[in-house]
Amino acid sequence: MKHLLFSTLLEDGRELCVSPLSIDAFEANRAYTLGDDSGYFIYEFDTNRPSSGIEILAKAVSFDAALRLVDIYAAAAERKASEVQAA
């Protein structure tokens, strides 16, 4: 993927990513209901089954919107980590 903005490994082996997509990845996912291949996409990738490709979950229409999503995720992850530490 080009210009990966964010990536994190989830506990179950999936990787959550935010980045623009190539036209090939966009078309392979038949994501036409999201408009075109411009913008930033939120997608997951199963590291245990790389042959399954990616699954697009959503689209952020701008770089600023994508950054905001990353900030929201980071804040939630930080809050969860501090709760686990406190327990």
What does this structure look like?
The chain is of the alpha+beta class. The protein is flat and about 45 Å long. It has helices at 23-28, 63-86, and strands at 6-9, 14-19, 40-46, 54-60. The protein has one domain (6-86). Strands 1-2-3-4 form a 4-stranded antiparallel sheet.
| Coarse structural class | alpha+beta
Euclidean distance between termini CA atoms: 38 Å
Nearest-integer average pLDDT: 90
Stretches with pLDDT under 50, minimum 5 residues: none
H/E series, N to C? EEHEEH
Q: How helix-rich are the residues, as a percent range?
A: 25-40%
Largest sheet: 4 strands, antiparallel
User: Taking Cα atoms only, what radius of gyration do you get, to the nearest Å?
Assistant: 14 Å
Number of strands: 4
Number of helices: 2
Strand order of the largest sheet: 1-2-3-4
Summarize the structure.
The protein has 87 residues and is of the alpha+beta class.
Observed structural traits:
87 residues; alpha+beta; four-stranded antiparallel sheet; 4 strands
Strand and helix layout:
Blueprint: E1 6-9, E2 14-19, H1 23-28, E3 40-46, E4 54-60, H2 63-86
Antiparallel strand pairs: 1-2, 2-3, 3-4
